[in-house]
Amino acid sequence: MNKMRNVFAGVGGALAVLLITTGAMAADSCIDCHTKISPGQVQDWKVSKHAENDVSCSECHGTKHQTAEDYKLAVLPDEAKCKECHQEQYDSFAKGKHNFGWTSLNAIPATHMAPDELIEGGRGCGGCHNMGIKTKAQKKEQRDKGYRYQNNSCDECHTRHSFSKKEAQSPRACQQCHMGYDHPQWEMWSSSKHGERWFAKQNGDLPEGAAAPTCQTCHLPDGTHENHTAWGFLGVRLPLPDDAQAAADRVTILKALGVLDPKTGQPTPILDAVKAVDMARLDQQSWQKERDKMLKICSQCHSSAYAKEQLDMGDSIMMKADRLMAEAITTVAGLYEDGLIKKPAGYPANYPFLLMFMHTNGTAWNKDLDKLSYIDQVLVQMYMKHRMRAYQGFFHVNPDYAYWYGWNEMTKDLGEIKELARVMRATAGKE
Ligand code: HEC
Ligand code: HEC
Ligand code: HEC
Ligand code: HEC
Ligand code: HEC
Ligand code: HEC
Ligand code: HEC
Ligand code: HEC
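That is the input. Now the predicted structure with heme C docked in place:
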């Protein structure tokens, strides 16, 4: 754990003293100069457990950079550096879904159509998906493009340089990424009873001991860094449900995700990509395992019968949302089939595709890209924004998100899609 202990264990005492002295001298020169050029940063490190334990600047950044000019010699440490002293957290992080953030981002075609500033620059997709231990090839790609930062995921929750445990225990640590368009978990949780109670405690309106589950209570219990849920982001899984209609609807969605071939119904290479980044639970056992874990957590504060009923209802509202979704997909698919929409470049089949997002509507920054029809955009929004809200809102116990921003908007989208399809057919004289 402690650097000094490691050093003492590894080599003889005299040599150790020498090493510590040089380490401390290097640290001092770093701190002397950086107190002048970036005092806030040094101050932040000073309040950390690292400062208390002599984990100095040079421990993480090396000693090669010594002057104002050679700063590019400083090592920008990735997770392997943290692992040297925090093996347990590194290992559990490596097993979780956060470890797939960068890889799953890059598996999506839309990413490669977005400006670099939003990916490598860490403002759009790349700001939130800078999660996961990067492979050598991924690092090389970044370097080749001229990008140097964003090498570490551990500092996404306990931000540098205070690297605080307490900060990461606050649900606010999750807010920057788990918010907004297609995953507003922060908004849903913070305005639910669960969140309201947490804020009441912060405000002193409820005693310290009052029950108020945070994101971490339910998703990172007992200090684990491994995060998985049963349904996951896409809200699809295998095996198919028993109910024939529900099974047919799920198949329609899987086709629009490009996972099943629209003609043959057979798995496509995209299914392998989904498997490779652990995107969905693909058998009953792996799904049930996550569900059972969650049920156990709810049961700390609710009767398990109550909690089970809540979670079961979450599953059944998804089946109902998927009925709407499948009908919308089938409507748009009919326009493709009848030649009223031309297959955009990059689409895997002559069928609606949900994973290209909204990249272009003729007004895109990149004029070379194919035009995506407006009705396709409404369909993508129905899936990515409104279906997500209907389902995530239910599981996060937020009535307004589940209904008004979710279910209600889905029914509106379906109405719009039907009307647009009717107008398109009428315009083409094919009603
Ligand atoms: C003589 C002053 C000086 C000393 C000594 C010094 N630095 Fe720096 N350091 C700088 C300057 C100047 C920059 C560039 C700042 C900028 O771009 O605004 C920098 C940048 C950095 C960076 C960022 C590198 C990057 O690519 O952006 C790190 C990390 C860093 N220093 C760590 C250290 C460590 C660790 C030590 C001690 C081994 C150290 N510094 C010693 C002046 C110094
Ligand atoms: C426990 C490890 C650790 C320690 C100790 C540490 N840093 Fe860092 N530092 C990091 C990480 C991680 C990054 C982000 C790297 C990246 O983006 O690729 C970073 C980034 C930086 C940067 C560049 C980014 C920025 O925000 O300016 C500077 C400069 C820097 N550190 C200076 C320092 C100084 C000065 C000290 C000592 C007072 C120090 N670091 C101590 C881990 C550490
Ligand atoms: C040379 C060993 C060493 C390295 C490298 C190191 N740490 Fe630490 N870290 C420590 C020690 C020692 C503590 C204090 C442990 C304690 O208090 O039990 C600590 C504590 C922490 C804590 C808990 C702080 C708190 O508020 O209780 C976090 C979080 C942390 N480190 C994150 C990191 C991250 C992220 C990196 C990589 C960027 C890193 N550490 C690199 C040695 C290290
Ligand atoms: C504000 C932060 C943020 C931005 C910006 C963002 N994402 Fe995400 N993304 C997330 C979060 C958080 C999740 C996990 C959400 C969940 O499970 O509900 C996620 C999930 C995903 C997934 C599914 C991963 C899986 O295994 O389930 C893909 C693929 C994805 N995002 C791609 C993108 C692309 C492409 C962009 C840019 C066009 C993007 N994201 C922009 C935060 C973001
Ligand atoms: C998704 C947010 C998140 C990320 C990313 C993250 N952590 Fe943590 N970390 C936490 C939370 C939450 C805790 C507090 C756990 C608890 O309550 O015991 C924590 C605690 C810690 C602690 C303190 C352990 C203790 O009990 O003293 C260390 C050390 C640590 N993390 C290291 C890391 C390292 C190394 C990485 C990168 C491999 C990392 N963390 C990435 C959320 C995160
Ligand atoms: C009371 C427990 C609880 C709390 C608190 C909670 N969640 Fe969840 N979360 C759930 C449940 C239940 C699911 C659905 C699990 C399943 O698939 O069966 C879920 C699903 C998720 C998912 C994946 C599916 C989706 O919604 O896209 C993410 C990501 C997530 N939660 C993040 C968060 C974040 C971030 C917070 C805090 C702002 C939070 N959760 C607070 C219980 C909770
Ligand atoms: C820097 C952005 C970022 C932060 C901060 C962050 N996450 Fe995530 N989270 C993501 C991304 C991106 C994904 C999707 C990873 C992937 O591609 O599979 C994700 C996925 C998840 C999932 C998995 C959902 C599933 O699909 O099963 C859970 C649960 C989760 N995060 C919880 C948390 C919690 C709790 C916190 C705060 C302690 C947190 N996250 C902080 C970006 C973040
Ligand atoms: C740390 C304790 C805790 C955990 C864990 C927890 N809850 Fe709660 N929950 C509460 C409290 C306290 C309330 C408010 C009092 C009440 O309605 O029972 C509440 C309220 C609720 C409500 C009713 C909200 C309302 O408006 O009446 C539902 C539904 C609910 N929780 C479901 C769940 C589910 C599902 C889980 C697991 C995914 C869960 N809770 C986990 C403490 C918890």
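The pocket of heme C (ligand 6) is lined by residues 171, 174, 178, 183, 185-186, 189, 194, 213-215, 217-219, 229-233, 291, 294, 392, 395-396 (CB under 6 Å).
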